[in-house]
Amino acid sequence: MTACNLKTALLTGLASIMGTAMTAAVMAQEHGAPAPLGRPPAAIVQSTPAANQLSDKTFIDSAAQAFATQIELSKLAEHDASDSKTREYGSWILKDYEAAAAQLNQTAAKVRVDVPAAIDEQHAKLIGSINRNADETFDSRYLKLMKEQHDSLTALFDRAHSDSTLSVELREYADKILPTLRQYQKRAQTLLESMNSA
Description:
198 residues, mainly alpha, 6 helices, 71% helix, 0% strand
């Protein structure tokens, strides 16, 4: 066999092997089976997008907006809620979350990240929506929003307190505040269940 023919044969064989490996990997993925050993084709390799990474700024922005939103909603609850337990819940939120927001400001200054100066449009709309549904009582709307907000906020802090991409100061802050968030998350759920069973 000439050198030219040998080179052609090798290339043809290599292409056939690669094509078979790629086909097997794709078929295995489609049927829920493990991909064959070896490097999978580029289409199967998935990396974590940068948008999913938690940075000091994204954590501070998200936490600040959440605290500001819950504080404003709870100010409304103090005056508009009909049930004394709901009003009391709102008062507790105001006290503890104003303190948590102040601590966030202090921690943000240490890591040299600016805290948002105002509530953004998305959260402003959320606050405004509480008085737009005439089919529910204020107490019901408020507690549902607080439960939803706490589900998101608790998940953020739960991730942050052990996330090595964050500064040490923010991880310590998240670890300190997380028990309070879980307490209010559970309390919102309890009040909702009590209201629905009445």
